[in-house]
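Reply to dn_fold:

You asked what the input looked like. This is it:
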Amino acid sequence: MKKTLFAILVALSLVGCGNQQKPTEVKCSQRHHTKSLVLYYSQTHVTEKVAKLFAEATSADLDSIVPVEPYNGSFTETIERCQKEMEKNEKPQLIKPMNVDVAEYDTVYLGYPIWFGVAARPVEAWFMRFDLRGKTVIPFCTFGSGGLETSVAALRRMAPSVNILDGFGIRSVRIDKAEEEINEFLIRSGIKPGTVEEIPPFGMKRSLNDEEKAIFDAACGDYIFPLGTPVLVSSRTVKNGTEYCYVTDCKDQDGKPARSEVYVIVSNEEGVGPEFTKVVR
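and this is what came back:
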C-alpha cells in the first residue's frame, strides 16, 4: 500500500518558476456574456464548496455528477478501487440523467478533486460521454498537493477539439482562501470585470539561504508525503506577501532521481505562517 500511496503523490502535479518587483494593478475587460453551467463531482464536499462559489460568482446554473456506485469508502479504499478500475479500463457509470441539458450552455465550469494526478474518474467518464465541441470548458479542482496542470493536459488529450482553458486549482486545506482566489481568477480570465494586481515573474533561481530553508520547512514540514529536498529558490512580491518557488530534488514513481517545484507564500499578515500552496512534478 506504501507503493500505492507514493504513486499517488508522484502523480499529483502543478505549474513553473520564473524578477522580484512590486506588483502593479491591471484592469481586465469582461468577455461576452454566455450561458454558463457549473458541473462538478465531489466525494468529500470540498470540491462542492468551490463549485458553489463559482456558481454564485458567475450566476451560473449548478449540477453535479453522481456515480451509480458511490466512492464513499476511506482514502485507501477509494485508491484501491480506482487502481482496479484502471487496470481493467473500467469507467464508473452515472446514476441518472442530469438535471440540466448541457447542450444549452456555451460555457461549462468543470470541477473535480485530483485523483492520480488527473480529474476524478466520475468526471473523466462524464467528459468522455458528452460532445463539448463549440463550448468553452473551464476546469477547477481541489487537491492535496497539486494536479491542475496535469489534469487539464489530460482533458485536452481526450478532447483536442474542445476549447479548454487553463483553469483554477486550490489545496483542500486552503479552502478558506477559495472565494478571494476565485474572484481574482475570474477577473484575470476576463469573465468578470474588475481590477487586479499584475503578477510579476519570478526572479532568477538561486541557492537557498538559511532563512529560505526555514520558510520551506515551516510550510512543508508537516505534509504527509515527501516533497523532496530544496536546492534552489526564486521569489516574487505578490499583493499580500512574498511567493517562493523552490526546486527540490526528489524521486519519481519508479524511484529515479527527479525534480519538482514547490510553491510557498509568506503573508504580510501578522501571525500567519508560511503556506505551502502547490507542487509541480
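The first strand starts at residue 25 and ends at 28.
Hope that clears it up.
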